[in-house]
Automatic annotation (TrEMBL):
It holds the Pfam family Glyco_hydro_67C. Residues 7-124 form the Alpha glucuronidase N-terminal domain. The active site is at E285 (proton donor), D359 (proton acceptor), E387 (proton acceptor). This is Xylan alpha-1,2-glucuronidase. The keyword Cytoplasm does not apply. The lineage of its organism: Bacteria, Pseudomonadati, Bacteroidota, Sphingobacteriia, Sphingobacteriales. Residues 128-447 form the Glycosyl hydrolase family 67 catalytic domain.
Length: 679
């Protein structure tokens, strides 16, 4: 076994003999003249997949054999068969259908571009991977978002900020001379789920990345990615003109600074003609930015956008800003700084907003900026790497987290203005659109550290392509492609995957608790942290537990952060009658004896969630033990061991938090839940 190196492109042998025969028959001949690099890559994938799954080597043909041929291409090829490809699928969409050409039945994969063909081929292979019939196909699909990007927080010394899967996969030392097979496999995996961009270096950027030496290395990666329709982007440090260029200032309105960036952009494009653009973290956590010169985020972003515009590049400007010198609630700062800038950004700027207002916590309400900047493109930023979700030792399937945020109703354009619709540009068709995922990839043999963490990379791609796809469907496909099609495996494992994020919320931060993890490592519990160096890094800043109760009052009697949401959302979360338990302590400070909708006191409810969370990990590992023999022994054993670690840590989280909070509540633990539910 490869211990998970092949990801969801495992291409397992089709086990059902009848099905295999049927597949082989329908795919005996292939019409797929592949002239370009991209088409060659698609064809290589098709042939590899068919060979591995079916031991099939289809015959290259020029004409159709009834019922036994697959024909693949763009209008260039297809016009000779009188097949038109509809404009409606766009440049990146594809069709997969059973069709009649001159009375002969065949399977058609059609797209308007070579990239569309790549997507079509991967999705066709998926049908076989999940053992679906291919005899009556009628699929038409296209991405709903333009920029579907992985953000690597990889440093040039190969450490990965918040990375838990080994060192960076980019071997800067050996680049550009050595092209690791991993780069190609990385690009294949991304293309298979429609990811079309990669920011290869950390948002806490090193100015050196823009030096000619590094640009040559970046160019080598870009050449690999291009074949798979993936553009390369760089995180840039705002002070690069000073650090790299020797200028006295990085003031975005200074003519010499503008010229430096314009020249740098020209230089980059001379190496990489289809370079994607810049990602910028500015005036956040000590990074330099336009505010250091009395300018706004818009001044900074637009200056870079001017430099990239002649080459069609974009600027992804992050809204993750907060500052302990600003005395207001940290929750509110991004909105306060960015909302007044709505409409002031150039067309090729997209503001990248984290899903929630604080920082990728196990559960956050959606960020109040979504819907609040109708004239500005907003790019969703999810975190795939599990900084606050147990690193790569805890099994947490994140698709339900993505869906929860994306399906939240912002009400900013009336009922039904979900976050997904906002970022898709449904309310302003002129805007560019996108979604970013902070990568969880490293040099570990299995790429992501935990075999199940691969599902988060996979689910991110699927969600960025079409945010309406359900977490259950995505998990189902991923399990079948990654492990086995055995229903006795897929069904129980899918069930616990779908519950896994809620389990972790329960044993880490239930009922709307947030930012109570260990200081700086962000691993393990730390609700007692009150000396992290600045108040907005203290756990006590967020939970505000004392003898009277617990929670952050963000209503009108408190920080009034709720006023940043549309009136309907504000009203719902402000009222204790309608605020869901999940968000309660995000917005309210309540007494320990406050009566919950369950009938329990707040204290009892809290304890109940912590215990249920730890118990659910035990249940999950029991289910896993029954999977022995259904998949390869290596991954079975690795997951089994990881679950034991997770269980121990869930118990630590539970006990640490319950005992810490008990010092304030002074209420008993044993009477709080039925004995039968005691783990
Ligand atoms: C978190 C994380 C940092 C990271 C930052 C960011 O605060 O802990 O390591 O740099 O997010 O998103 O910029």
């Amino acid at each position: 076994a490869d211990n998970g190196y092949k990801l969801w492109l495992e291409y397992n042998k089709v086990g059902n003999p009848q099905l295999a025969v049927a597949y082989r028959q329908q795919l005996s001949y292939v019409i797929f003249p592949a002239a370009s690099d991209r088409l060659k890559a698609a064809k290589f994938e098709l042939l590899t997949g068919l060979d591995e799954m079916l031991t099939l080597k289809p015959v290259d043909a020029k004409s159709i054999t009834n019922g036994q041929t697959i024909i693949i291409g763009t209008p260039q090829l297809l016009k000779s068969f009188s097949i038109a490809v509809p404009d409606s699928i766009g440049g990146e969409g594809y069709l997969i259908k059973t069709t009649l050409i001159g009375q002969k039945k065949c399977i058609l994969i059609a797209a308007n571009s070579d990239v569309g063909v790549i997507y079509g081929v991967f999705n066709f292979l998926k049908l076989i991977q999940i053992n679906q019939s291919i005899s009556k196909l009628n699929i038409s699909d296209h991405p709903r978002m333009m920029y579907r990007v992985l953000d690597h927080w990889d440093n040039l010394n190969r450490t990965v900020e918040r990375g838990y899967a080994g060192s960076s996969i980019w071997n800067w030392h050996k680049l550009p001379g050595v092209i690791d097979q991993r780069y190609i496999d990385y690009a294949r995996a991304n293309a298979s789920v429609g990811i079309n961009g990669s920011v290869v270096n950390n948002v806490n950027a090193d100015a050196l990345i823009l030096s000619p030496q590094y640009l040559l290395k970046v160019q080598a990666l870009a050449n690999v990615f291009r074949t798979y329709g993936i553009k390369i982007y760089l995180s840039v440090k705002f002070s690069s003109p000073v650090e790299l260029g020797g200028l006295k200032t990085a003031d975005p309105l200074d003519p010499a600074v503008k010229k430096w960036w314009a020249d740098k952009a020209d230089e980059i494009y001379s190496y990489i003609p289809d370079f994607g653009g810049f990602l910028v973290k500015a005036n956040s956590e000590g990074q330099p930015g336009p505010q250091s010169y009395g300018r706004t985020h818009a001044d900074g972003a637009n200056m870079l956008a001017d430099a990239l515009e002649p080459h069609h590049g974009i600027v992804m400007w992050r809204a993750f800003v907060y500052d302990n010198k600003v005395p207001d609630d940290r929750f509110k700062q991004a909105y306060n700084e960015f909302k007044p800038l709505d409409g002031k950004f150039k067309d090729n700027v997209i503001v990248q907003v984290k899903n929630g207002p604080i920082d990728f916590q196990p559960r956050e309400p959606f960020h109040p900026l979504f819907g609040a900047m109708p004239n500005t493109p907003l790019m969703m930023e999810f975190q795939l790497t599990q900084e606050y979700l147990g690193f790569s030792t805890h099994l947490v399937y994140e698709a339900p987290l993505f869906a929860e945020c994306l399906q939240s109703d912002t009400y900013t354009h009336g009922k039904g203005s979900t976050v997904a619709r906002v970022i898709k540009g449904d309310f302003n068709k002129k805007l560019i659109t996108g979604m970013a995922g902070v990568a969880n990839i490293g040099a570990d043999l299995n790429w992501c550290g935990h075999p199940f963490a691969q599902a988060n990379w996979y689910a991110f791609g699927r969600t960025a392509w079409n945010s309406d796809q359900s977490p259950a469907v995505i998990a189902d496909d991923w399990l079948r492609m990654t492990f086995t099609d055995d229903e006795n495996f897929v069904s129980p494992v899918k069930k616990f995957m779908l519950q896994s994020r809620e389990n972790t919320v329960n044993y880490m931060a239930p009922l709307g608790l947030h930012h109570i993890m260990g200081v700086s490592t962000h691993y393990g519990p730390g609700p007692w942290v009150d000396n992290a160096g600045r108040p907005d890094w203290n756990a006590t800043y967020y939970h505000k537990a004392d003898s009277s109760g617990i929670g952050f009052d963000r209503t009108g009697t408190g920080s009034n952060a709720l006023a940043q949401y549309a009136p309907e959302v504000k009203a719902r979360w402000e009222s204790l009658q309608t605020c869901p338990d999940e968000y309660l302590l995000w917005f309210h400070h309540l007494s320990w004896t406050y009566k919950m909708s369950s009938g329990r006191s707040l204290w009892d409810e809290l304890v109940y969630h912590y215990y249920a969370g730890a118990e659910s990990v035990k249940q999950m590992s029991r289910t896993w033990e029954k999977m022995e023999g259904k998949i390869d022994a290596e991954r079975f054993s690795e997951v089994k061991q990881l679950m034991q670690v997770q269980l121990n840590e869930a118990i630590t989280w539970r006990d640490a938090c319950v005992l810490y909070f008990q010092t304030f509540s002074k209420m008993p633990i044993e009477t709080t839940y039925p004995k039968s539910q005691h783990p």
